[in-house]
Design a protein that fits this description.
- By secondary structure, the protein is an alpha/beta fold.
- It is 34% helix and 18% strand.
- The chain has 9 helices and 8 strands.
- Strands 1-2-4-3-5-6-7-8 form an 8-stranded mixed beta sheet, sandwiched between helices.
- Helix 1 (48-54) runs parallel beside helix 9 (258-270) and helix 2 (80-93) packs across helix 3.
- The chain starts with 12 loop residues before the first strand and ends with a helix.
Length: 271
């Protein structure tokens, strides 16, 4: 694996894992109870700080979703619903009976899909800025269309801290080709899974009651991607969850407040 591409992950190991014929890249770090971390549309890029903070309390497993980063994607995996079954197979392969599961944005949606299928496969579930519910109705868009925003505007709206590298053309022009390829694969995979219906599964809301694990949902106080209406929809669809707001954070809570987010996950898992 080309670990030099993900320099912020040098504190752990990045390897290849074969999941029933699909080779994915898997990052692992830390010691303690197991935690499965599911990244957002930005891939493992930019997750170094939160993963390092989590590794102080957990053995962290952080795969690149099929199609993202350096992970393969067979044609049969083309919906987030498919990823739910894929991650159940991965948990079996790793012999993880009921780890803590934490997901951010797109990854939180993947986590929800997984645990509606086998409700007892997590000891605790933490979702930061989850997607997955219908993002619009006839009159109003409840989640900004990230595919219609310029890369620069998306970078500004995703987080309150400095945007990730690759959100402006000057940085892209200087980016090494292997890193650029990862970035383009992340964009392509996000489009594949989230193009239509836009970043949602219309059936998910009717299945969320199946999630049995204690669940914490976190929203950034300054999230410029999702509306208050969308947050309310999640609260109605998942009444068994605890909902909290993280100050000084946008949609990418893990980028704006990695230490805070890791502390909340650890405290919730220990409660």
């Amino acid at each position: 694996m080309q670990t030099e591409i993900l320099e912020d992950l040098r504190f752990g190991t990045l390897s290849t894992l074969d999941v029933l014929g699909t080779e994915i890249e898997m990052f692992r770090a830390g010691e303690g109870d197991p935690l499965l971390f599911l990244h957002g549309t930005d891939g493992l890029e930019g997750s170094g700080a939160i993963l390092q903070a989590l590794a102080r309390d957990f053995t962290v497993y952080a795969p690149s979703h099929p199609g993202f980063g350096g992970s393969a994607r067979p044609q049969r995996l083309n919906r987030v619903d498919d990823l739910g079954y894929f991650y159940l197979d991965l948990l079996d392969l790793l012999s993880l009976r009921s780890p803590v599961v934490a997901g951010t944005s797109f990854g939180a949606w993947v986590a929800a899909e997984t645990l509606t299928k086998e409700p007892a496969r997590a000891s605790h579930l933490v979702m930061a800025s989850p997607l997955g519910l219908p993002t619009a109705d006839r009159r109003e868009q409840h989640v900004a269309d990230i595919f219609m925003l310029s890369r620069q505007e998306l970078g500004r709206r995703m987080q309150v801290s400095d945007p990730l590298p690759g959100t402006d053309m000057a940085t892209l022009a200087k980016m090494p080709e292997p890193q650029l390829r990862r970035l383009m694969r992340n964009d392509e995979a996000a489009s594949l899974y989230g193009w239509t219906p836009y970043m949602s599964n219309p059936k998910l809301g009717d299945r969320l009651h199946r999630i049995a694990a204690p669940t914490l949902v976190l929203w950034g106080a300054d999230d410029a991607i999702v509306s208050q209406r969308y947050r309310d929809d999640w609260a109605k669809a998942l009444p068994q969850a605890t909902f909290e707001t993280v100050a000084d954070a946008g949609h990418r809570i893990h980028a704006d407040q990695p230490q805070n987010l890791a502390a909340r996950i650890a405290a919730f898992a220990a409660a």
